[in-house]
Each structure stands twice: as C-alpha cells, then as structure tokens.
Design brief:
The protein is of the alpha/beta class and 127 residues long. Helices cover 20% and strands 33% of the residues. The protein is built from 3 helices and 11 strands; from the N terminus they run H-H-H-E-E-E-E-E-E-E-E-E-E-E.
Amino acid sequence: MSITQNAAIIPYAYVTPPSQYSVTEEVKERQRIRQGMRPIGSRTVTGTSTLTAADGTVLANTTGGPISVTLPRADGSKNFQVTVLNIGTGVLTVVGTVNASVNPTLNQYQGMTIMCDGIGFYKIGSV
C-alpha cells in the first residue's frame, strides 16, 4: 500500500482535532488585540460604566436618566477604539477629553466612534 492510499483512509477529524479550533481562535483574538484591531464585543449599559479594551460597541440606555461612560487612561490605551451610542431618551456623557472637548455629551440616537493614539482620544466617526 502506498502512502497516498493510507492518507485517503484517515478521517479528517484525526488529522485536525476539533480542540485545535478553539485554541487557534483564541490566539487569533489575542493577536488582533495586540495589533490594535477593534474587538468585536458589544454590551448595553444602563448606568455609569468604565470603557475597557474588550468593548467594541457600547449601547447606553439612558431612558432611566442621564448616565456616563468613562474613557480609560490614554497613556495605556494606544489603538483603543470603541463606538458609543445613546439608545435612550436621556443624555449620555463621555467622561474624558475627545478632540479637545471635555466630557462630550450625546443625545438620543447620537453616537461616536473614538480612537486613542496613546496620547489622546479622537472622534473618528459619528453614528
């Protein structure tokens, strides 16, 4: 029997065990974060919250009253990027300085994408 014939009878699952998929995806996610690529996570907040590197999109439900989301320290947040959107009827305050504006506010259905260069935060888009 030749090697080619033997390879043909080996089931695919034995060549690439399914357990490797989760490890590979975890490694890829770590690489994306290290390279400054945007996380794909999202969450909804209904009260004061601090933004983290795991946040990709934050939906702020301000219907119960005004709330705030706090930006992390700029000096440890190079390539940090997040989109915040006010989905409630109240006011959302982004605590920090964005484009030289201190504590910008967002009304209902207003949002912004914010990015950090390690020195400051910048609005790079509106939602």
